[in-house]
Amino acid sequence: MNFELDEDIQFLKRNVRDFIQNEVEKVAMQIEEENEIPGRIVEMSKELGLFGLSIPEEYGGLGIGMVGKCALYEEIGATHNGYTTLIGAHTGIGTIGIVDMGNEQQKKKYLPDMAAGHRIGAFALTEPAAGSNATNLKTTAVKKGNKYILNGTKHYITNATEADIFTVMAVTDPSKGAKGITSFIVEKDFPGFHVGAFEPKMGLRGSHSAEIILEDCEVPTENVLSEEGQGYVNALKILANGRAGLAARNLGSSQKLLDLSVNYAKERIQFNVPIIEHQAVAHMLSEMAVDIEALRSFTYRVAWMVDERKKIIKEAAMLKLFGSEVYNRVADKAVQVHGGIGYISDYPIERFYRDARITRIYEGTSEIQKNIIAGQLNKEYS
Ligand SMILES: Cc1cc2nc3c(=O)[nH]c(=O)nc-3n(C[C@H](O)[C@H](O)[C@H](O)COP(=O)(O)OP(=O)(O)OC[C@H]3O[C@@H](n4cnc5c(N)ncnc54)[C@H](O)[C@@H]3O)c2cc1C
Q1: What are the pLDDT digits (tens) for 171-198?
Q2: CB of 210 closer than 6 angstroms to any ligand 1 atom
Q3: Could you report how far apart the first and last alpha carbons of the chain are, in Å?
Q4: Same domain, yes or no, for 102 and 153?
Q5: Does the pLDDT at position 116 exceed 90?
Q6: Which sequence positions are flagged as catalytic?
Q7: Closest-lying ligand 1 atom to the alpha carbon of residue 204
Q8: Angle value at C-alpha 53, between 202 and 304, nearest 5 degrees
Q9: Average pLDDT over residues 364-381
Q10: What separation in angstroms does the CA of 337 have from each of 89, 203, 351?
Q11: Nearest Cα residue to atom 25 of ligand 1
């Protein structure tokens, strides 16, 4: 197992770090206040190739493996999580379906524009009655000639207001349960496609969530992703393949919180000494550092497994669970180390604390990851 980054990736990683530190960090407070990512930052991200992080070189992307991607995601995670989510959702669940399951015609049609950031990707699985139980979809797709007609409502869709291309799961045969679900590539300009209510939330400001309403939405048959009946399996694969990237972003955020916390603990004087000299504070920092180092090793191990095309169902679920829990534990300790200022909105700690919370919910809750792990253990020990 070799996690050594080649020179090209190291170069890219340095460039991304410079961009995050010198440009995105400067506008973090602005993103929080305005609930918008400045257009200049989006344009610079395009120039750096960040929108093509998951796309092969032949379609205009960076063409890097999962270990390389995680190295860049770690940098992208070390800033405002609204920005991290814009890039993460596009390059993760918004793009992976077409890259991994798209046919040549679909890849040529969609990926170059997505790699350049001219068209943004999103993933639309969740519905009011289908959250953790994604087999309970109510959105239907009925074949009529050379089109499918989609009807239904999706909610909580990340990038819904920015995205142009959606991977949408809908029921084509209700009698077959999970095997009756099909995935489609849906363009926002297709007739009958509407972005619904904007959904305000606890954190992730700058990243917009909204409903998607499909009203007799016309999708050409050539936009079926892989084949009819494969939609549920596709959704699970997309989510599993996205998990190393999500963990790497959580890792970047956690490392940022440790950096801020150690620096603060060395500067803040109470009882005539820097608070890092109080053992209770020092131990919190040690626990944060151990969690982060364990997450780093685990993330790159799973990324390596992805690159080696090994089966990752159990490990991806473990990593999703562990990465989210570590980020939440670290954020909680970061608030504690900072004391009152950790709770004050002029300082970034409380923002990370709020933003960390969603990682235990989206792309499969922590409880669902435990169910997946237990299911795999059950099989292994049978
Ligand atoms: C900010 C945000 C962004 C999102 N982005 C997207 C997106 O881009 N695309 C998309 O499709 N979806 C998206 N989602 C949806 C997200 O993936 C779901 O919210 C999540 O999967 C949980 O579903 P739910 O909210 O319906 O909760 P529920 O499924 O109702 O779960 C409620 C509680 O019950 C628990 N629970 C449910 N079933 C079980 C079980 N079998 N065993 C143990 N516990 C269980 C859950 O763990 C949770 O604690 C997003 C959500 C949010 C909030």
Answers
A1: 999 999 999 999 999 999 999 999 998 8
A2: no
A3: 29
A4: no
A5: yes
A6: 363
A7: 1
A8: 95
A9: 97
A10: 31, 21, 15
A11: 131
CATH number, residue 317? 1.20.140.10
Instruction: Return the structure tokens found at 321.
Output: 């669970």
Q: Are residues 356 and 245 in the same domain?
A: yes
Give Cα separations from 229 to 8, 170, 213, 216, 250 (angstroms).
40, 10, 22, 20, 33
Parent domain of 291: 233-380
- Residue range 328-342: average pLDDT? 98
Q: Mean pLDDT across the chain, nearest whole number?
A: 97
Across the range 336-353, mean pLDDT stands at 97
Q: Is 339 in the pocket of ligand 1 (CB under 6 A)?
A: no
Q: How far apart are CA 215 and CA 268, in angstroms?
A: 58
Same domain, 278 and 348: yes
Query: Given a cut of 90, is residue 1 above it in pLDDT?
Result: no
pLDDT surpasses 90 at 3: no
When divided into structural domains, the chain yields a total of 3
Element (H, E) at 212: strand 209-220
The verdict on 237 and 376 lying in the same domain is yes
Mutate to test the pocket of ligand 1, among 362, 369, 370, 373 (most ligand atoms within 8 A of CB): 362
CA–CA gap between residue 295 and residue 344 (Å, rounded): 28
Where a domain ends, among 95, 116, 137? 116
Residue entry with tokens 């980054």: 5
Probe target for ligand 1 pocket from 361, 369, 371, with the most ligand atoms within 8 Å of CB: 361
Average pLDDT of the segment spanning 240-250 = 94
* Same domain assignment for residues 251 and 364: yes
One-letter-per-residue 3-state SS of 59-118: HCCCCCCHHHHHHHHHHHCCCCHHHHHHHHHHHCCCCHHHHHHCCHHHHHHHHHHHHHCC
Dihedral sign from CA coordinates of 353, 345, 92, 57? negative
The domain boundary, picked from 116, 133, 164, lies at 116
CA-wise closest residue to 130 among 235, 270, 260, 262: 235
Q: What is the pLDDT of residues 35-57, one digit of tens each?
A: 999 999 999 999 999 999 999 99
Q: How confident is the model at residue 255 (pLDDT cuts 50, 70, 90)?
A: very high
Q: At what angle do helices 66-76 and 231-267 cross, to 10 degrees?
A: 50
